[in-house]
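Appendix B, example 12.
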Amino acid sequence: MRKPLIAGNWKMNNNVSDSLKFAATLSVELKAAGQIDVVMAPPFTALYSMGVALSDTEFKLAGQNLFWEDSGAFTGEVSGEFLAEIGCTYVIVGHSERRQYFGETNETVNKRLMAAIRHGLIPIMCVGENLAQRENGDTWQIIEEQLTDGLRGIDLRTVAHFVIAYEPVWAIGTGKTASPDEASGVHDSIRNYLKERYGDETAGKIRLIYGGSVTPANSRELITRENIDGALVGGASLDPKKFADIVRSAH
């Protein structure tokens, strides 16, 4: 039985003061997460303060990205060592916005995954197709390439701890959501791919979560599907009450 995971990706929102207010409200809304992993990915500047504020809770922290080198002359980058030192458990890797705006590729995703592994961070590896690829019928071809190239060289014992987030790019921040059947179909294909590559036992441990305009109104119908183990929440994660409703929907 895979433990559900709900992750909130704040992107470039919420300064330190905003983040602390959020943490206080969420702690009241969700006094106990129960059998659900709740993960927050605030901006880098708020990670330390959020870690302190949530230290007495079950909530976990995630970085929104990391660089593949551990140190050096890489202005503006953050290493896995830095994230682990301030208490991050997870890190988002290969988000579509990183691919779209900052030149992320399947190959650099692989490098970042390797860096996360070195520092004991659990990657939330993002895959998904854009609208043109979807309309051309290339959804699975794109996702398969992202998985194959991204997971290259990663052994089955390590990948068993991964989280893979299917985020159809056309549904991120647009208000559009893949229907439960559409999302479930892609998740089923990812699970089958993982079984073929790593075997049933390992594939059965990897959590597959959905991201793409997840809200309290649609989260339960998505999360209750067999191979949808949670959600990567964007806009709705900025409202602690909405985010708490999404977490509760996973019970």
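Residues 180-198 form the longest helix (19 residues). The first strand starts at residue 5 and ends at 9.
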